[in-house]
Amino acid sequence: MNAAQGETDRSALRFRGTVRAYRDSLALLPEGPYRRYCGWLLDHPSLSRRWLRLIALEELVSMTGALLDRMPLDQDEADALSVHGTFMSVHQIYEVVSDNLAIGLAAPGVTAAVPAGQEREEVLRLFNPAAAESLRAMDSRPARAAFAGWENPARRISAFRSSNNEAEHRALAAAFGREHPGEDPAGLEFSVAPCLLANITSGLAMADVVRSLATWDLFITGLARRYTAVQRLLIERPTDLEALLGIGTDSIMVVSTIAYYTGLINEVVRPLPAYAHVLDDGSVQRLLTDAALLVRLVNDVGTRLLEQAPQDRRQLVARLRAAAVASPAGDLAQVLWQAQAAEGALLTRLKKDVGFGEFNVCLDGIRHLPGQEGLAHFEDRLDRVTTLYRRTVDSLTRGAAELRARTGSPLVGAPALCFVRFHQELYRKTFDDQMGDYAVALSRPDRRE
């Protein structure tokens, strides 16, 4: 078997394994039309691939494969890790539902244009604390008790309209309805509540995989803080950059993801005796926190803008100021939105978050300010985050090297390094290209240590 055929076969195995895990996860959904609908789609080959693409399972499998292929692991070790990776992928499928609910909530003007903004925020305010409590207790009862509270407002939220492909959702639901005329179609479209419960219970199933590991505390703390951080964003509405960076680092779910794989690699797949020492003294946690901060920054600001030379950044701000003078009635969000056409990939991440009203460390609290005033604050934030980015890249690189020297293995730092490098590459592109080329970017193997 040649190398290309081997990679194809491994990808197919990962895909089938994740589909099996997703099918098993349907048992986590409350009994009802949506659960029957998902099972029916999986049983119809002509529709199942469309469904798996729609819920991002295909992209998640590609991402998992790309990350594992970058690790300096033997193939048998990578295959063993892939099996555990299916639990992470399934949890992230359900995570998309809660992510979609948050669209527009960071910007009141955008929220008003997005359907059911008030109901979505009400649901998330009930969901987030229940998720955090259930995870910390490793018990689904807090989530099931809270389910009744968010079920009623969730019935007014269209999962189809909250997704990124409403038309495809409606087409698949219509196919199901033709064969099941007795099923209530509202149970398919307004399926947010059961998916949120599955979000929590799938997180518990994933957590159970690493429950016996020494990395457990780091993992579960990071995962629970993802939900408490989102809750803080909804309630506190912070505007201070330091607060935004802290909450943003927790809410992006990077620490738990990297901890999951770091623990499995160094405690299960290739046990490393020295790993316990660097875990106990906080070295691994510091590395993962650096990685989470870097992913938050490239996600919000974009790699190109973060790595732009200072003189080029000053010229960019000057162009933005000129644009603000030309359109004095516009606020900062409008200035950035209009400027992206000329600036291209430099501003693509900012334009995305302006357009969708999403959290952004460089925009929250100032996006609504008049253009000139907003740009003064924006320039200050940009200077501070680019300095922080460079310092954190150095800290991550240095931390991974120190861990390798102390343990004699590159595998303690490899998951964090690979995760950050992947996102740096992804967020160099324009937003449209990031989505269109997602699977391509994910499939590039890179075994740099």
Sequence-ordered SSE layout with sheet pairings:
Layout: H1 3-25, H2 33-42, H3 45-54, H4 57-70, H5 75-101, H6 108-113, H7 117-137, H8 141-154, H9 166-179, H10 186-189, H11 192-209, H12 216-236, H13 241-251, H14 254-269, H15 275-280, H16 283-301, H17 303-306, H18 310-326, H19 332-343, H20 348-356, H21 371-407, H22 414-426, H23 431-436, H24 438-442
Helix pairs in contact: 1-4, 1-5, 4-5, 5-11, 5-14, 7-8, 7-11, 7-12, 8-11, 12-13, 12-14, 13-16, 14-16, 14-22, 16-20, 16-21, 16-22, 18-19, 18-21, 19-20, 19-21
Keywords:
449 residues; mainly alpha; 24 helices; disordered C terminus
**Count of separate DSSP helical elements:** 24
Q: Which structural class should the secondary elements be placed in?
A: mainly alpha
How far apart the termini lie comes to 27 Å
Beta-strand content estimate? under 5%
Write down the Rg: 22 Å
Principal-axes geometry comes out as globular
Spell out the helices and strands N to C. HHHHHHHHHHHHHHHHHHHHHHHH
Mean pLDDT, to the nearest integer, reads: 90
Counted beta strands? 0
Largest sheet: none
Give the fraction of residues assigned to helices: over 70%
- Low-confidence segments: 433-449
Summary, kept brief:
The protein is mostly helical and 449 residues long. Helices cover 75% and strands 0% of the residues. The chain is built from 24 helices and no strands.
Structure report:
This protein is mostly helical and 449 residues long. The protein contains 24 helices and no strands. It has helices at residues 3-25, 33-42, 45-54, 57-70, 75-101, 108-113, 117-137, 141-154, 166-179, 186-189, 192-209, 216-236, 241-251, 254-269, 275-280, 283-301, 303-306, 310-326, 332-343, 348-356, 371-407, 414-426, 431-436, 438-442. The longest helix has 37 residues, at 371-407.
